[in-house]
Amino acid sequence: MKTTTILLLAACLVCRHAGAATADAAATPDTRYRIDVRAGALPVGTEGHGAGPALGLGAGYALTEHVDLTASGDVAAHGAALFGDSESFRSITAGARLYPLGRHTVVRPWLGAEGGWYGVRHVEDSLYFSHYYTPHVESRVRDSNGGGINFGSGVDVPLGRHVSIGTDVRYHQTLGVFDDPGFLTTMANVSFHFGH
Q1: Mean pLDDT for the chain?
Q2: Residue 5: per-residue pLDDT
């Protein structure tokens, strides 16, 4: 009986604390503007390339409780670090983010899609020896620019009124760039919120 009473009291305290945290998050008015700083990886390479780094900056403007307008600038690369083939991707895109549960919850899952400019640089490095056995490196660089789209999802967790942390997983599909490579980025992000 005593153990049951202690467990019930502990459960009530946990529920009360969770309810208070949810109420605080709901009572805290969200800020209108958001700046995102992202870093992570391009885990799945295209055309047999390996994984590589990915970085990004983003911005958002809250239209409603459930919808943000967004803009992003991202870079990602993969391939050989010294000799061999490598590819790098650059993009500037704009779109929207949907918060199905709203922006006044403790954990904020979201879905997003953006479209815009994509650029790809393909570098082929070759090491060869001249007739005097002197090593030479020859690089062949090809650039292509076109369009593209990205779509993905993530989760934001507020650490207070002005800072949140989260995840960002997106699939990018280039259009009109070489043979239209697609790639996946997985990033962790820190967001800074401000304005009313």
Answers
A1: 82
A2: 39
In 66-107 the beta strands, taken as DSSP E runs, fall at: 67-79, 84-98
Residues 17 and 111 in one domain: no
The answer to whether residues 19 and 49 belong to one domain is no
d(CA 30, CA 68): 12
Q: Report the alpha-carbon distance of residue 172 to residue 8 in Å, rounded.
A: 49
This model's pTM is above 0.85: no
Q: Could you tell me the residue range of the domain that residue 11 belongs to?
A: 1-29
Is 193 in a helix, a strand, or coil?
strand
Q: Please tell me the distance from the alpha carbon of residue 80 to that of residue 176, in angstroms, as a whole number.
A: 25
Element counts in the chain: helices (H) and strands (E): 1, 8
The predicted pLDDT at position 155 comes to 97
Residue ranges in the chain modelled with pLDDT below 50: 1-29
Judged on CB neighbours under 10 Å (0-12, 13-18, 19+), 99 is: buried
Least Cα distance to 184 among 89, 42, 5 occurs for 42
